[in-house]
Amino acid sequence: MGNLGNACCAQSNFDGAIEYQQQRLAIARETGDNRGEEEALGNLALAFDAKGDLPGALQCYHQQLELARASSDDRIERHALKNLKLAYKYLANYEQANYYRQQQLAIVRQLFLSQENNDFVQLAEMVGLNPVEDFAGEDLSNFDLQYADFAGANLRNANLSGVDFTLADLSGALLSGALLINATLCNANLRDSELNDADLSGADLRTKLPRANLENANLTNANLSSAYLPNANLAGANLQGADFRNSDMSGVNLSGANLNGADLSRADLKNIVVKNAKFAGCLGLSEGLKIELMEGGGIFE
Q1: Do 105 and 123 meet the contact criterion of CB atoms below 8 Å apart?
Q2: Measuring CA to CA, which residue among 28, 23, 30 is closest to residue 38?
Q3: Residues in CB range of 61: below 8 A, 6 or more apart
Q4: In whole angstroms, what is the distance from residue 168 CA to residue 153 CA?
Q5: DSSP 3-state of 193
Q6: Angle in degrees, 0-180, between the axes of helices 14-30 and 2-10, rounded to the nearest 10
Q7: Tens-of-pLDDT digits for all 301 residues of the chain?
Q8: 232 vs 222: CA distance, rounded Å
Q9: How far apart are CA 250 and CA 247, in angstroms?
């Protein structure tokens, strides 16, 4: 009956598919076949969905989730959570979609902290999460995410404080407003990333940040020694006490930035924009360079 239902579905005979799957479901329940019941509910949900009856599919997914938890079937539970999240998202019921997404995230955290598998992104995908869009605003603080692939991911307003992103791929990632306090981003790929309004105070940013947008970001006491920053946007950023020794800051926009107390020893400052940028107490600036920066609008009071 299950196979007949699947065959009907493949031929777009959705009413026939629903009828066969309902018969299979009834037999599975009558005989106490939990696995058969879980599979029948899943296939029945697909038939309802294909017919355009999303409420019917949702009812099946809810029953499937309840049964999976009662029988401690982790695989089916993850599958049901994923389908519930996607269905409610499709219905624009974002509150309910987020409710099931949070349950998925809880499973990922538990697996990540309890298993030998330290590939966070792989675990997230196994649970049915999409790393590109499902972590915005989430708390991933203090996780070890070395080598993780978050290229193009939406991590806006996420709490990533203390996270180890060593050698992670964050190219093109959206990190606007994210908390990255004391995060380690050494040798991470941050090309073209969006870090505006992010809090990177105390972060290790000894890495490549060409064209990165750090407008209005907080980088107080951040370590950017030997960082590669050509044409990055640091307009309005708080860079007090930041370490820029030996960094390549050519073409960087520092308009309105606060660099008071920053160490700029041996930094490449060619073609930087410094209108209204504050340089009081900076280290590593020759008198000639100070004059040049003041002529460009830099403030040394």
Answers
A1: no
A2: 28
A3: 41, 45, 80, 83, 84, 87
A4: 12
A5: coil
A6: 160
A7: 999 999 999 999 999 999 999 999 999 999 999 889 999 999 999 999 999 999 999 999 999 999 999 988 888 999 999 999 999 999 999 999 999 999 999 998 888 878 666 788 888 888 999 888 899 999 999 888 999 999 999 999 999 999 999 999 999 999 999 999 999 999 999 999 999 999 999 999 999 999 999 999 999 999 999 999 999 999 999 999 999 999 999 999 999 999 999 999 999 999 999 999 999 999 999 999 999 999 999 999 8
A8: 16
A9: 9
Residues paired with residue 169 on neighbouring β-strands, in sequence order: 149, 189
Judge contact between 279 and 300, C-beta under 8 A: yes
Residue 117: the pLDDT is 65
CA dist 200 and 67 (Å) reads 45
End-to-end CA, the chain: 83
Name the packing angle between helices 74-90 and 34-51 (round to 10°): 20
CB 179 within 8 A of CB 202: no
